[in-house]
Design a protein that fits this description.
The chain is an alpha/beta fold. The protein has a single domain, classed as P-loop containing nucleotide triphosphate hydrolases (Rossmann fold), CATH 3.40.50. The protein contains 7 helices and 9 strands. Strand 5 and strand 6 form a beta hairpin. Helix 1 crosses helix 7 and helix 5 packs antiparallel against helix 6.
Length: 209
Amino acid sequence: MADSIPLPISLPQHPPLLVVVSGPSAVGKDAALTRMRELNYPFYFLVTNTTRPKRPEEVEGVDYHFVTREQFQEMEGNGDFLEHAVVYGYDYGNSRRQVREALARGLDVIMRIDVQGAATIKRLVPDAVFIFLLPPTLDKLERRLRKRRTEPEEYLRLRVHAARLEMSEMDKFDYVIVNEDDALDDTADLIYSIIRAEKCRVKPRQIVV
């Protein structure tokens, strides 16, 4: 019997990805990515700049870069941001340079961002991977917001209303994950599984930032 001869298959090269994790406020975007860092997932976790005051449990340079309004405006004027937006009265912006440098090093970049910002990235970088986090129910999302105890009642109602509107944008994303209570490891594993599956695409995504 003749020896089997391998077919001349050339597997596609998979360049690094830009992964956008989005969803309504209090759905658990920050917590999910924090857990992924704790579990040493091999990604570059982009840290957002914000003018929002730091919450007691947050760490500068890990959760956010906390900057003044003047600093933010200077960065914006210098064209530092890949995208920036005003969310509930505070400025948020993500560094274009940091994304480019991480991709150039061959690292998959993962960022968490509000739904408005995700729409901007979708327009600028259409080949990015877009993942939408959903709460188990809207009632549970409201309980998560109340647990923070950082906003007055009328502000909480505004956030819940905004969450309803944001969840209607879900069909514009590539993937959706229900972020169950006390199941951050499962959410982190699902995000990782999506990225691994993307590495198996016959036609790899091409990220241009």
